[in-house]
Specification:
There is one protein chain. This protein is α+β, with helices and mostly antiparallel strands. The chain has four domains: about 100 residues, Orthogonal Bundle (Helix Hairpins), CATH 1.10.287; about 130 residues, Chaperone, DNAj Protein, Chain A (Ribbon), CATH 2.10.230.10; about 60 residues, HSP40/DNAj peptide-binding domain; about 40 residues, no CATH class. Helices cover about 30% and strands about 25% of the residues. It has a four-stranded mixed beta sheet. Strands 1-9-8 form a three-stranded mixed beta sheet. Strands 2-7 form a two-stranded antiparallel sheet. β12 and β13 form a beta hairpin. α2 runs antiparallel to α3. The chain starts with 5 loop residues before the first helix and ends with a helix. Belongs to the DnaJ family. This is Chaperone protein DnaJ. InterPro entries: DnaJ (IPR012724), DnaJ_C (IPR002939), DnaJ_domain (IPR001623), DnaJ_domain_CS (IPR018253), HSP40/DnaJ_pept-bd (IPR008971), HSP_DnaJ_Cys-rich_dom (IPR001305), HSP_DnaJ_Cys-rich_dom_sf (IPR036410), J_dom_sf (IPR036869).
Length: about 375
């Protein structure tokens, strides 16, 4: 039976990004996991098929081979059938050579050694740490950031050569980027000292970028921060990183989110916690208290009679939103019964009188000291 297309298995298009492929795989893995499909004998094979597809598509090198040759790139059937009269074995060797050249040509200097790939270098990925408030993480926000980075030189259009002239093949390594030296029985291969491994040299370097093909510049970018982000969330902006050397592809920019601590709320995933002080009278007699919510609103909470410190009450749907949908979490109100301070003489007198009359109104104290007496009696025995 012919294998299904890996993109079809995961349900993504061929132009899908790495994040989209990863997200699709996670969804498929949850859906097809054998533990959740015990009544479906096909689930295990479908689960393995999804794993196999993801193992190939998550790796840039293997994905490139698959995009060009399909399943034949990995099952030994690459190039099957006649090509210009060649048999299967010769065709396989030719195809493997093509794949090897396509995937590793940058490192080995390419076939001719003078092509653009032998000199172009991909720009570095950049990291930007961005701090946002809890309210911004709740609703989402658009931020403008200034990123110091390298951009393609406008004077030479990224070639590194003055006046738009083309770089020339390095005469030392003949465009390979490496030189070999014989040492006894061994041949040692080193990076070419003339071109530093680029395979090409610029005889008339651009005066603006000194032949690098890029210049330092600060760029202003607008970044959309989705609702529900938390500390550690990573946002990838493809192609917004450092410019490549001598016309190479641009790297990516990764935004790492840090959510600042809030004065009123503590966060745990999608749940929010808010500690509310209440007076002894309110805790004993019951009542109502008005509490804030992260969206700027207010909610009235009923305090039951005899409430103790640490008692929690839940406001459903008043927590943080889930990053990728799925509604909102809850907000938990935790009571803290407050002991009054700076009492007047009259207040102290009333409290002493109340304490004498409250012998049977403190069940927790009665239970604790009863256990203490039993402990002491046991020690005496």
């Amino acid at each position: 039976m012919a294998k299904r297309d890996y993109y079809e298995v995961l349900g993504v298009s061929r132009g899908a990004s790495a994040d989209e492929i990863k997200k699709a795989y996670r969804t498929k893995a949850k859906e097809l996991h054998p533990d959740r499909n015990k009544d479906n004998p096909q689930a295990e094979s479908d689960f393995k098929e999804a794993n196999e597809a993801y193992e190939v598509l998550k790796d840039d090198t293997r994905k490139a081979a698959y995009d060009r040759y399909g399943h034949a790139a990995f099952d030994g059937g690459m190039g099957a059938g006649p090509r210009g009269g060649a048999g299967r074995q010769g065709d396989f060797a030719s195809s493997f050579s093509d794949v090897f050249e396509d995937l590793f040509g940058d490192f080995m200097g390419g076939r001719g050694g003078a092509g653009p790939r032998s000199r172009a270098q991909r720009g570095s990925d950049l990291r930007y740490n961005l701090r946002v408030g809890l309210e911004e993480a709740y609703s989402g926000v658009q931020k403008t950031i200034n990123v110091p980075t390298s951009v393609a030189c406008g004077s030479c259009n990224g070639t590194g050569a003055e006046g738009g002239s083309e770089p020339q093949t390095c005469p030392t390594c003949s465009g390979m980027g490496k030189v070999r030296a014989q040492q006894g029985f061994f041949t040692v291969e080193r990076t070419c000292p003339t071109c530093a491994g680029a395979g090409q040299i610029v005889k008339n370097p651009c005066r603006t970028c000194q032949g690098a093909g890029r210049v330092e510049k600060e760029r202003q970018l607008s970044v959309n921060i989705p609702a529900g982000v938390e500390t550690g969330t990573r946002i990838r902006l493809a192609g917004e990183g450092e410019a490549g050397m001598r016309g190479g592809p641009t790297g990516d920019l990764y935004i790492f989110i840090e959510v600042r601590e809030h004065a009123l709320f503590q966060r745990d995933g999608t749940s929010l916690y808010c500690r509310i002080p209440v007076s002894i009278a309110t805790a004993a007699l019951g009542g109502e208290v008005e509490v804030p919510t992260i969206d700027g609103g207010r909610s009235r909470v009923r305090i039951p009679e005899g409430a103790q410190t640490g008692k929690q009450m839940r406001l459903r749907g008043k927590g943080m939103p889930a990053l990728r949908g799925g509604g909102h979490g809850d907000m938990l109100i935790e009571l803290a019964v407050e002991t009054p301070v700076n009492l007047t003489a009259r207040q102290k007198e009333i409290l002493r009188e109340f304490d004498k009359l409250a012998e049977n109104n403190n069940p927790e104290s009665s239970s604790f000291f009863s256990k203490v007496r039993s402990f002491w009696d046991g020690m005496k025995g």
